[in-house]
């Protein structure tokens, strides 16, 4: 299979979401393989507490995963909307510190930014499994060992962005794509494919997929979270509290 490149427009889209090519050692950063070990994860979080905005490692752990979840979101977007496979292995991914509106917002760089077209459903299944079971689930296990933070919080931090990718019509380039996208989304939520995510009896994303509802003081319907991500525990955290926070959302009764 010959390696291909994304178009300039496609890279411009990814860069809006903090995913970049052409990493150089001068940029610094941390290779994502660091996060696969308890020792590496603990050292990284401890060093980033001040940047993340909390001395509490559980809070730092949750916020780390909220940012890191973009690995799944961008990998799935490239696959679903462009039919491309990126190399998202931990050894190919470098995380560089960044800041946006006072929040720690790391940038993701790929050492090898080449891509390939998918030629079968089997290839897509292997790719999805490599992202979740082969990568993110290992990161989750490291975070759990370091902070004893619940799996439920960590998986919901990922689920929020996965749902966003599949419910965002801005990425559709033609109407026929909607059917294929929605079929892929149903697979991602199916217990039949729970092995894609790790050693789970039930799909760890599906439990968070509920209907969106009207809540007080929010214009659009939201999917109220089942767990709290601890954004409100950051320094000056109330301004960062999610609009779907389970602690504050009051569902409107029609």
């Amino acid at each position: 299979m010959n390696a291909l490149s994304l178009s300039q427009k496609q890279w411009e889209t990814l860069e809006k979401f903090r995913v970049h090519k052409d990493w150089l050692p001068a940029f610094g950063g941390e290779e994502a393989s660091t996060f696969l070990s308890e020792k590496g994860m603990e050292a990284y979080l401890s060093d980033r507490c001040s940047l993340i905005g909390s001395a509490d490692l559980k809070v730092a752990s949750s916020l780390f995963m909220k940012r890191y979840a973009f690995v799944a979101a961008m990998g799935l977007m490239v696959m679903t909307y462009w039919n491309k496979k990126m190399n998202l292995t931990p050894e190919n991914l470098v995380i560089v510190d960044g800041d946006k509106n006072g929040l720690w917002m790391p940038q993701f760089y790929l050492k090898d930014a080449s891509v390939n077209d998918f030629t079968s459903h089997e290839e897509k299944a292997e790719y999805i499994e490599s992202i979740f079971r082969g990568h993110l689930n290992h990161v989750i296990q490291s975070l759990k060992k370091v902070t004893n933070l619940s799996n439920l919080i960590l998986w919901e931090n990922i689920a929020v962005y996965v749902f966003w990718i599949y419910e965002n019509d801005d990425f559709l380039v033609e109407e026929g794509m909607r059917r294929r996208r929605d079929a892929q989304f149903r697979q991602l939520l199916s217990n039949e494919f729970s092995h894609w995510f790790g050693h789970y009896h039930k799909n760890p994303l599906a439990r968070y997929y509920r209907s969106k509802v009207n809540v007080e003081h929010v214009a659009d319907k939201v999917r109220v979270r089942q767990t709290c991500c601890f954004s409100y525990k950051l320094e000056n955290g109330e301004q960062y509290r999610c609009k779907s926070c389970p602690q504050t959302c009051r569902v409107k009764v029609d």
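The chain has two domains: 8-209, 211-254. The CA atoms of residues 177 and 244 lie 29 Å apart.
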